[in-house]
């Protein structure tokens, strides 16, 4: 999930590859984007909230123009290298290429995480 910088919108992804953008003031579905063939595991708004970046288990990263909901002149899609895929799922498992590598006990699970290439950063509630 990801919040827009003005906290008006929340984006969430589904296992079916669909991105849902929610209007937080009304609680209603603002927009749906169907652009991935597998689950969406990372989402982030651009600082100006015009673009939404989504990353999926189908090894694609997409930048969506939220004004149109499609990839266009202001957005793009490209495939990520398939040799390394890092995720945190299955109740606390860090996985590399879908293989369980490290289990995190409840007190060590991150509140958020970011991946940059082959580096995984974990953000804990205690800082």
From TrEMBL:
Compartments reported by the entry: Mitochondrion outer membrane
Keyword vocabulary terms for this entry: Repeat, WD repeat
The WD repeat ranges on this chain: 1-32, 33-69
InterPro entries named among the record's database cross-references: WD40/YVTN_repeat-like_dom_sf, WD40_repeat_CS, WD40_repeat_dom_sf, WD40_rpt
Membrane topology listed for this record: Peripheral membrane protein
Keyword Transcription: no
SMART domains: WD40
Family matches, as Pfam families: WD40 (PF00400)
Position of the signal peptide: none
Function: Involved in mitochondrial fission. Acts as an adapter protein required to form mitochondrial fission complexes. Formation of these complexes is required to promote constriction and fission of the mitochondrial compartment at a late step in mitochondrial division.
Family assignment from sequence similarity: Belongs to the WD repeat MDV1/CAF4 family.
Matches recorded under PANTHER family: WD REPEAT DOMAIN 5B (PTHR22847:SF637), WD40 REPEAT PROTEIN (PTHR22847)
Protein name: Mitochondrial division protein 1
């Amino acid at each position: 999930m990801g919040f827009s910088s003005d906290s008006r919108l929340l984006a969430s992804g589904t296992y079916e590859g669909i991105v849902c953008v929610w209007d937080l003031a009304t609680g209603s579905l603002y927009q749906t984007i169907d652009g991935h063939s597998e689950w969406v595991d990372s989402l982030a708004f651009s600082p100006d909230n015009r673009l939404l970046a989504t990353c999926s288990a189908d090894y694609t990263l997409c930048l969506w123009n939220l004004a149109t909901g499609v990839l266009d002149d202001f957005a793009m899609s490209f495939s990520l290298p398939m040799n390394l895929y890092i995720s945190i799922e299955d109740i606390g498992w860090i996985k590399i290429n879908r293989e369980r590598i490290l289990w995190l006990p409840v007190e060590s699970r991150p509140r958020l995480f970011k991946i940059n290439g082959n580096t995984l950063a974990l953000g804990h509630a205690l800082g």
